[in-house]
């Protein structure tokens, strides 16, 4: 894999319950709302489960995600192709933490920041609806 080794950890406060955050992080139809500008595989089931694999694209760059852990408070993804590494999500009432580490030509911290801000916006929109 060509690229630069990168690691980043970000934690934000959100106006949402643990269960609402869980839905946004474990259900592909919800993920599609905040993972912009990335696109997800079109044929995903209703929820992410351990062992499943899916692909996201940022323009022409494909990233394969393998679900290693999926629970009510944690999601751990092994990444390959466009990013060789992992992405771990943890959450609770009012907060979300994202840890990403890997080798990539993509600016991982920028993508992570955009994803967290989009997630916060979607959670706020659903909370106010």
Descriptive account of the structure:
- The chain is built from three helices and seven strands; from the N terminus they run βααββββββα.
- By secondary structure, it is α+β, with helices and mostly antiparallel strands.
- The chain has a single domain, classed as Alpha-D-Glucose-1,6-Bisphosphate, Chain A, domain 4 (2-Layer Sandwich).
- Strands 1-7-6-5-4-3-2 form a seven-stranded antiparallel β-sheet, covered by helices on one side.
- Helix 1 packs across helix 2.
- The termini are far apart.
- The mean pLDDT is 94.
**CA-based shape:** globular
CATH superfamily: START domain
CATH secondary-structure class: Alpha Beta
Major β-sheet profile? 7 strands, antiparallel
* Average of per-residue pLDDT values: 94
Order of helices and strands: EHHEEEEEEH
**Taking strands numbered 1, 2, ... along the chain, how are they ordered across the largest sheet?**
1-7-6-5-4-3-2
Fraction in beta strands = 35-45%
Radius of gyration (CA) equals: 14 Å
User: How many beta-strand elements?
Assistant: 7
Total number of domains: 1
Q: Indicate the CATH architecture.
A: 2-Layer Sandwich
> Class by helix and strand content?
alpha+beta
The level of helicity is 25-40%
Low-pLDDT parts are none
The fold-level CATH name is Alpha-D-Glucose-1,6-Bisphosphate, Chain A, domain 4
End-to-end separation in angstroms reads: 44 Å
Helix count, per DSSP? 3
Kindly report the oligomeric state of this protein. Answer: single chain
